[in-house]
Every structure is written in structure tokens, then in C-alpha cells.
Amino acid sequence: MQLLAKLAGNYGMDDEILKQLKENQVLLEKTYKTVERLKKYFMWTLIITVITVILPIIGLIFLLPMLMRSLGGGILGL
User: Fold this and answer.
1) Are 23 and 1 in contact (CB under 8 A)?
2) pLDDT given for residue 61 in this prediction
3) What distance in Å separates the CA atoms of residue 4 and residue 21, rounded to the nearest whole number?
4) CA angle, 60 then 65 then 70, to 5°
5) Contact, 4 vs 26, CB < 8 A?
6) Residue partners of 4: CB distance under 8 A and separation at least 6
7) pTM of the entire predicted model
8) Which residues have C-beta within 8 Å of that of residue 1, sequence separation ≥ 6?
9) Could you give the maximum distance between any two Cα atoms of the chain, in Å?
10) Which pLDDT does position 67 carry in this prediction?
11) Helix or strand or coil: residue 13?
12) What local confidence, expressed as pLDDT, does residue 70 receive?
């Protein structure tokens, strides 16, 4: 905000422009905070998706062959 005051003094900005710049700075800070919250939300969504979808698929890749072997052995009587 001090930089804005310096600019206003050096270049003869009127009070209305300075007020608008301050309001824009406040809105920019609010937008930044919102974006940071969204980033965290998306990160946790990704983590939960990996835990609930990807990890079970990887588990099936390893467990399905063992299950097929045990079921196939029982059916064939081996």
C-alpha cells in the first residue's frame, strides 16, 4: 500500500484511482486465498481417488491370479 501512496504522490493520481487500486489489491488477496484453498481441495480429491480406485485395482492385479489358481485347482481336482 505504501508503494501505491508513493505512486499517487509522484504522478498526481487522484484519490478515486488510488481507492480503486486499494480495492483491487484486497480483491486480489481474497482471490489468492480462494485459489490456495481450491488447490488443497483438488490435492485431497486426488489422494482420495488414488486410495479408493487405483490401489484396489493394483491389489486385484496381484490377487486375481492367486484366486483363479485356487479356484481352478479345486474345480479340476488337482
Assistant:
1) no
2) 92
3) 8
4) 120
5) no
6) 18, 21, 22, 25
7) 0.56
8) 22, 25
9) 95
10) 85
11) coil
12) 83
The cell for 59 is: 491389489
Helices and strands, counts by H and E, the chain? 3, 0
* Spatial distance between the Cα atoms of 5 and 21, rounded to a whole number of angstroms: 10
Please give the Cα distance from 22 to 4 (Å, whole number): 8
Q: What does the block give as the cell for 10?
A: 509522484
Taking the chain (78 residues) in consecutive chunks of 10 residues, what is each chunk's mean pLDDT? 61 83 96 98 96 93 88 67
Q: Give me 76's grid cell.
A: 479340476
φ and ψ at residue 25, rounded to 5 degrees: -65, -40
Q: H or E segment at 55?
A: helix 55-76
Measure the N-to-C terminal CA separation of the chain; round to a whole number of Å. Answer: 82
**What distance in Å separates the CA atoms of residue 3 and residue 22, rounded to the nearest whole number?**
11
Hey, where are the domains in the chain? Answer: 2-76
